[in-house]
Amino acid sequence: TTIDFVGFDEHIEAEFSNLFEKVFGESDAPPFWKFHGRKSPSEIKKIFNQVHCLVMASSSENAPCVISEALCSNIPVVSSQVGGISQMIDSENGILFELKKDVDGAYNNISNISALSESLMLVHAKIANNKYRDIRENAVKVYGAETISSRLYQLYLSL
Q: The pTM is what?
């Protein structure tokens, strides 16, 4: 199993690789993570066709489009509980974890990677036991093109 990261630049890739090595230790085996860098929407769609879940570990977000895109692609989401994400993810379509800060207010990256790791194990178990059903069906009702265009049309009519 590999965790594929998309969207990071080289500096962040190196930082996360170092953190992962601290948390998971160094070994002779190749790492279980892979960084892809920034990708175009068509490349992201290809990646979506190959993955088992989306991870959105962010310290601040509103309602990122990538989450609705993943859900509409029937992909469960593991995410930090920030901003509007907590209104998008529930036990039926993913798992939320809380980001931890140190006493000085800085994010404790080792604790957060551990929380992410625990969340990934939980989502893996739910996927293996076929616990995620109807992710796409439920997401399309909220985020699908027809739903969004209808809402926008109604908004314009109300002006």
A: 0.77
